[in-house]
Amino acid sequence: MSSRDSILASLRRNAPPASPLPQAPSAITYSDPERQFAEAFTSVGGRFIRVATLAEVNTELEKLESYTQARKISSLVPDVGRTNVDLAALKDPHELEGIDIAILAAEFGVAENGAVWVPGSTLGPHRAIFVVTQHLVLVVPAGQIVHNMHQAYDRIRIERPGFGIFISGPSKTADIEQALVIGAHGPRSCTLFLVG
Amino acid sequence: MTGHAEKAAPFVADDARVHWHDQALWFVRLKRDRQAESIPEWEALRDAAAAIKAHTLSRIADYLEEFERNAKTNGIQVHWTRDGAEHNDIVHRILADRGLTRLVKSKSMLTEECHLNPYLEARGIEVTDTDLGERIVQLRHEPPSHIVLPAIHLKKEDIGDLFHKELGTAEGASDPKYLTEAARSHLRQKFMAAQAGLTGVNFAIAETGGFVVCTNEGNADMGTSLPPVHIACMGFEKIVPRTKDLAIFLRLLARSATGQPVTTYTTHFHGPMRGGELHVVIVDNGRSAILGHETFRRSLSCIRCGACMNTCPVFRRSGGYSYGYTVPGPIGSLLAPLRDSHKFGSLPFASSLCGSCSDVCPVKIDLHHELYAFRQELVREKVVPLYKRFAMAVLSFILARPWAYRVAGSLMRGIMPRLPRVVVYGRWNPWGRQRELPSMPGESFRDLIKKESK
After folding, report:
1. Does the B39-285 domain belong in CATH 3.40.50.10420?
2. Is A93 in contact with B209 (Cβ distance < 8 A)?
3. ipTM of the complex, rounded to two decimals
4. What whole-number distance in Å separates Cα of residue B129 and Cα of residue B115?
5. pLDDT digits (tens, 9 = 90+) for B219-237
């Protein structure tokens, strides 16, 4: 018998009696989800900036040191950022190394934990961009903040085959004496613009 | 057989470090409490998570088949392995068949359990653990001491010395930010040079044939988005039925583990990267036998958050290595003896049965009751040492008979004060090694009551 069949047979033999799937409990909602989202995103080490238009994003970007100092910039958000790296021209994701700042679109945010959903199809030709970049900028349309993770999964369309990711702030670690250090392997900073 | 107490001895010898370790973990427990309290439906979430796990275990073969079918549609190659040896062999074959010799790994307790690293290294493959804490213990040639905080037993000075030796950081430097930066550039080189990436699996989804990996550092994402080959290893119990079940588990996992509202990266894989390959290796390694165990099968619900370790008064004061098993703490004290009750027979006793573990468990495993039940099993199986069983037999004889209790009491009161210290605190009395016995009263409680009521 193959390993597959013998494992499945022993799982069927040893399975406990049937028990039903539960309903998800009714979950927390916030009177001002946008404010809660901003607080949660800031608490996980992110920087939250509220703007009215995409033009304003460009203005605000010029105030960020990580942006003005950046040599290599790549934006996947139309009309935002001074892109000088053409991702489509890179044959291999390893060539992403050296990108100083990447600007990505997120589909929506989650108020309870400050996470944003980024579908793989919006990451361009090399999905590694979101983690290889030294600094990350996320652009989220206003009005696209859900209260909690249950609402989030009601919205998500899983891309199959595909990829998708919740991002909540910059990469971080506390593996040395529980001291929080921002900038582990991925982005050293994460700035989010809520636009509209 | 060296038991938990003997293995804890070197750790508890350094009193200051024990207190520091205790406080470091208690700090994480308090962060967890703040997060749990911020969610009014926290208890209902725990109930739902427990019920989903119970349901899934009752139909686990069906869900795994559904997962496999959907995963294949997504272009994922699925492998089934009965034990650690078969698991290691398949991972090695995937690498060897493609001539790949440089592997980066993100955290996977399953591969620790299977001892994958030494297996691959013996066959010429360079394995780099990329979670910072795991890299630290790998460079020290140690296993992780905690499943979520692998280097929690070390102080920053220890890590400074290690990095000075291994990575060339400045001598005596111990600033966590400086050390993390050094590890970042060291590991970036490893990521850039890697030919394959290996991850664990936090949750696999039957309905969509994909899986989720959670990290804060982004190491799993680096390791699976740069090299073209991704291998993900999972115990079969990681399966959940539907995408929407993820909401429940993701709300619980990071809050319980580190007191964060969610991990920085929650990555959903539903197919290989462009031009790449994605392999999922499903592992049994003794789990299906646990599934058949009526009392202890709930331990398969564990989502490896580590909350039971952070809160456990024994773990906090004895350190992860005292358990001698990949998964330490209360949950490890069940999982290890379920695997080998002789080798790990002391672990169910490494608990005060205070119940704190059961209170924080996000999937409501009744840990302290199961540990208690396991003790009884070990006595029945005669795994508990003879002297202990003998002592318990004598004690139950005395406590069940009032006359015997009276006689024993008066003998103790008469003889004990006359015995020299070397006898009372001899080798037979491990309890007295760190503690003073109370002085014997002149008369019993019964005598006192009799006198009072005259």
Report:
1. yes
2. no
3. 0.98
4. 13
5. 999 999 999 999 999 999 9
